[in-house]
Specification:
The structure is a single chain. By secondary structure, this protein is α/β, with parallel strands linked by helices. The chain folds into 4 domains: 6-151, 3-Layer(aba) Sandwich (Rossmann fold); 172-287, Putative Large Serine Recombinase, Chain B, Domain 2 (Hect, E3 ligase catalytic domain fold), CATH 3.90.1750.20; 300-438, no CATH class; 449-535, no CATH class. Helix content is 44%, strand content 19%. It is built from 19 helices and 20 strands. It has helices at residues 26-40, 66-76, 88-91, 95-105, 126-159, 183-199, 202-212, 234-242, 267-287, 336-352, 360-373, 379-388, 405-408, 449-466, 473-480, 484-493, 498-506, 515-520, 528-535; strands spanning 6-14, 46-48, 53-56, 82-85, 113-116, 120-121, 172-175, 178-181, 219-220, 226-227, 249-252, 255-258, 300-302, 309-317, 320-328, 333-335, 389-394, 398-404, 418-430, 433-438. Helix 10 packs antiparallel against helix 11 and helix 15 (473-480) packs across helix 16. The longest helix has 34 residues, at 126-159. 23% of the residues are buried.
Length: 537
């Protein structure tokens, strides 16, 4: 009786691109070892699939790898029986990612086993999963220890005033791993500081520099690509004016240390510029109402490029007057809180995504950004959003946020000016306004006070009506001072399905479910499942 054929997919990975251009590189070595192992199991019916699943230059810390994505897709399609790797950490170094893979491997219709060239573990058994989890725990621990060592080395080196690499600041070149002054560029830097001191406005400074044709630093990459030479963005100018490297110092997180390179700006001019920047910032603080201010003023557009401007309306509620904010133009009227929450949530997710963090300094800076973005009462949040976001476009099926790479990476220029965040969403009309209903992105629960009040009132009136046989609907309407029609509509709210009522109380009801929609419905189905289908719950 012939053995069942076991289709084996070989996955290889290397964290860096170094050496991949060689005729025989580490990916080839990994594949040869795996092929030899599969050959040793040919008596069990094992065969090597011809498809190459090779990821060169990709970290094992996340799953955003083209070959890995193809491997997972082929597993789900039932094309693979066993995954073979040289070492377990070639597949992943993160336990959370491994847990996701195990779910795919454990497909009851087509289970997939997992093999290293030294040991075989069957991921469909609890013992195999335990063993792999232990090994991956050590792999993740090793990765975290290496990260800590690198961070400690950078911190110790910067305390000694050493430049630790990265993009060169305008005014400096690199020689023997040290910063040396580029006199032509240094004169530009001095000009920027002196001009700002005269104009006392970064906006006017930018206009002045653009008029005179002053541009960012020209750079040549290792591959020979020329970048830079662009107009200096306002954010880049703020970076220059606040960069302590120009007074012979090195910044690490919140600390500044004496450096080994020569300064370009003298302390007198530096301090005067810092004083003006601080004064301008304090003046702006007084103008910003963090709680009621419109976070996205000047940034939000519809799909035709028409700008949406802030607006508000004051409405009476049971607890008094309430101010509702919107972004409006001739075709759209969006609740401000909804679109602002979408922007903040997705900016934070982008900043927390490991694939967007290139250096330790990025990680520290992004963590500060996230902290500021989550602080509703911080005036800094308003300025940070305007600094990071170039534009927001609201379309019928998605919201697109253009994030400035120049501001994000603290660079004076960038090969790719913007990163696009595309959030699946739908515009749905709710009365006079349109609400944004998110697709894949989960929103935080949000209680609708009016809906909760109506629900509570409906139950109160229903209890009143059923507690005695002497009270008619007409008498109840007179007692409450409302019309008989209104009483009828209010009472039917108490007949909503338990699932809908729970959603209203917990704030997880669909954004399209409003008090106005509920009270203006011509008919409400008596069947609970039909109700839930009607409201999308």
């Amino acid at each position: 009786m012939s053995k069942k054929t076991v289709r084996c997919a070989i996955y290889t990975r290397k964290s860096t691109e170094e050496g991949l251009d060689q005729t025989f590189n580490t990916l080839h070595a990994q594949r040869e070892a795996c092929e030899a192992y599969i050959q040793s199991q040919r008596h069990e019916g094992w065969i090597t699939l011809p498809t190459l699943y090779d990821d060169g230059g990709f970290s094992g810390g996340n799953m955003d790898r083209p070959a890995l994505k193809q491997l997972m897709a082929d597993i789900e399609a039932g094309l693979i029986d066993t995954v073979v790797v040289y070492k377990i950490d070639r597949l992943t170094r993160a336990l959370a990612d491994f847990a996701k893979m195990v779910e795919i491997f454990d497909n009851p219709d087509h289970p997939v086993s997992f093999v290293s060239v030294t040991q075989q573990f069957n991921t469909t058994t609890s013992m195999g999963r335990l063993t792999l989890n232990v090994l991956l725990s050590f792999a993740q621990f090793e990765r975290e220890v290496i990260g800590e060592r690198v961070r400690d080395k950078i911190a110790a080196s910067k305390k000694k005033g050493m430049w630790m690499g990265g993009l060169l600041a305008l005014g400096y070149d690199k020689e023997d791993k040290l910063l040396v002054i580029n006199e032509d560029e240094a004169n530009t830097v001095r000009d920027i500081f002196q001009t700002y001191l005269k104009l006392k406005s970064v906006r006017e400074l930018k206009a002045n520099l653009d008029k005179r044709g002053i541009v960012s630093k020209l750079r040549i990459s290792k591959t020979g690509n020329l970048t830079g030479g662009n107009s200096l963005a306002r954010g880049a100018l703020y970076t220059i004016l606040r960069n302590p490297v120009y007074i012979g110092k090195i910044r690490h997180k919140q600390n500044v240390y004496d450096a080994k390179h020569e300064p370009i700006i003298d302390m007198g001019l530096w301090q005067q510029v810092q004083d003006v920047l601080d004064e301008n910032q304090n003046n702006q603080e007084g103008k910003v109402n963090c709680k009621n201010g419109s976070l996205l003023t000047g940034l939000i557009f519809d799909r035709d490029g028409n700008r949406l401007t802030p607006s508000h309306a004051v409405k009476k509620t049971a607890s008094g007057k309430k101010r509702y904010r919107y972004y409006v133009n001739e075709s759209l009227r969006l609740p401000a809180a909804d679109i602002e929450q979408i922007v903040i949530i997705n900016l934070c997710a982008f900043l927390n995504d490991p694939k967007n963090i290139k250096t330790t300094e990025d990680a520290d800076r992004y963590a500060e950004f996230v902290k500021t973005l989550k602080d509703d009462n911080s005036f800094k949040r308003v300025f940070l959003v305007k600094q990071l976001v170039h534009s927001i476009t609201v379309d019928t099926k998605e919201v697109t946020i253009q994030v400035s790479n120049i501001e994000l990476n603290d660079k004076q220029d960038s090969e790719d000016s913007f990163a696009s965040l595309n959030i699946p969403a739908q515009l749905k009309r709710c009365g006079m306004e349109k609400k944004i209903v998110l697709g894949e992105v989960k929103r935080k629960p949000k209680n609708d006070a009016t809906l909760i009040t109506i629900l509570a009132k409906a139950h109160t009136l229903m209890e009143k009506l059923t507690s005695t046989d002497q009270l008619s609907l007409s008498a109840l309407a007179r007692q409450e001072g409302v019309s008989l029609t209104y009483i009828g509509k209010l009472l039917r709210v108490s007949a909503l399905s338990p699932k809908i009522q729970e959603a209203i109380i917990t704030g997880t009801q669909p954004q399209t479910m409003t008090a106005n929609k509920l009270m203006t419905l011509k008919t409400l189905p008596s069947d609970w499942s039909e109700q839930e289908q009607l409201f999308g719950i």
